[in-house]
Amino acid sequence: RENEKRKIEKAVKMGAAGLIIMCVHNEVFDEQILRCVLDDFPLILVDRNMAKVAVPCVTTDNYAAACELTEMLYEKGHEKICFVSHINHDTSTIRDRLSGFKDACLKHGQIVNDEMIFMDLKTCTPTELEGIDNQYAAEDEEKMTAFIQDHPDVTAYFASQYKIGLIIIHAIRKLGMEDRIDVVFFDGPSGITFEKPYYARAIQDEKVIGQTAVKLLREKMDGKKVEESVYIPYHIMV
Question: Is 7 exposed, middle or buried (0-12, 13-18, 19+ CB in 10 A)?
Answer without folding.
Answer: middle
